[in-house]
Amino acid sequence: MTNATQFNNRKFLLNFAEKLRKEWREGDNNLYSSKLTDQIAILEETSRYTDCVYALFDFEKYTYLFYTQNIFDLIGLSPEAKEKKWDHAYLSTAQDIKPVEKFLALREDILSTHCHTPPHNFQSAIGGCSVINLQGVKMRLLYRSRPVSFTSSGNVKVSFDCVSNITHLMAPEPGYWIRFTFNNQSFCWHSDNKKLLPKDIILPREAEFINLWNKGLSIPEIAQKSNVSIYTVKNQLANARKRMFARDNTSLTRLCSLIGML
Question: Which of 156, 213, 217, 234 lies at a CB distance of 3.0 to 4.6 Å from 147, suitable for a disulfide?
Answer without folding.
Answer: 156
